[in-house]
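Follow-up to my earlier ticket, as requested here are the two runs.
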Amino acid sequence: MKKPVMLIDLDRCIGCLSCEVACVQEKGIENINIRPMKVFRIEGLADEPDGFFLPMNCFHCDPAPCVLACPTSAMRKREGDGIVYVEELLCIGCKACIIACPYGAITFNPLSQKVEKCDYCYHRVEKGLLPSCVSKCVTNCLYFVEVDRVPKERHRVRRIDSKLYGEVFNPEYNIIIGP
């Protein structure tokens, strides 16, 4: 697969947390406070008086600040598809990647003394499967596609990426696009 992106149709997300649960189960995370996929309720925007739900995972930035900050090279970016992942055996739990991540996408797991983050379930992607969060989304609001196959025409799509996060709420788009 070429560079994948996660697309999120905010009009379909109902905040059911099925993506969060699927992620935690797939990764076998036992600590309920560790959530590589998080769903937030966004309220108080002038153009969205009722608010909306925002599923958030790692943006797999390019370049990835977490990869650059890691002193042991445990945080890695795959060649070809650009998926950022943690090589668990090399992680010393120093939290440099957590500090470097501008989106709060990496968390420290006190049970394992390692960091946890979304890695697009790359072990599934290698087998031609979708990330667990996408396959278990009950409203089908999550999409996982190659960057050059991102739909061009949708209404009310929101584009948020590593450079624009929190700044762009463009009414001509209705899908969040990570880098």
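Run two:
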Amino acid sequence: MHSPAPKAASATLARPVDLTTLWIAPPLLVLGGLFFYPLVLILGQSLGSDGSALSLRFYAQVLATPLFQGALLHTIVIAVASSVGCLTLGFVMALVLSFVPFPGARGIARLIDTFIALPTFLVALAFTFIYGSAGLLNMSLMATFHLPLPPIDFLYSPWGVILAEITVYTPFVMRPLLASFSLIEPAQIEVASSLGAGPWRIIRQIILPAAIPALLAGGSLCLLLTVNEFGIVLFIGAKGVITLPLLVYDKAIQEFDYTTACVIAMVNIALSLSLYSLYRLVVARFGGRNAGLV
């Protein structure tokens, strides 16, 4: 009587190889070449890999400098202030567009959405034409009131950067808010109004609870984007306003101090990844569909 073991072994050897797992190789190669490899180089440079032993001494030196601390403070303050402004303005505008019917409301909402596709420096350029020292508003006021100096000079300060970022990133808050408001049943508002509830009470007890997931998701996204904003800060050229991305540019491109630039870049990356984790946590907690993100 013959043993079936050889047949089983031959069947195992003859089984075709599953090639579907090989499809993951091209994306991994692209990610490795375009993202992970440069990131490893930046990390190595920040640790002093250019012939010297790897060490954190460069981090201790850079993080202790007033220039870095000031840039970190400016980055956080501008990002938080811009995000708060986006939340406030976005909530008010989405509220008006959703619950105050007027001709052209849908067209205005579509127009605001187009800001998402525009480069950020275009807003900074527009602000320069309007609010700059030689801008339309200053020149008109100087000609009208015979002023020797431009009366409006907020543009070249942190307030100018914050206002420009609010203008650019408010649509990122409005979009999920408009989607969230569209899920509110009009009957809820009609019943509350018929029972004597005023507009502020309706907003506080019906609209605001429905908007919280979208506000959290949109706010965390704005915080992530404003922390990494570079074009607006560079283009406006606000005096004394140096953020982490701008400091990386200054150290790498203007001073050729690549080690310091890489240290600051790694700190900026760590900050960005932390904020992205917060954003993903908010979306996972409340659901992308409920937050209007899908």
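The only thing I checked on run two: The two ends are 65 Å apart (CA to CA). Let me know what else you need.
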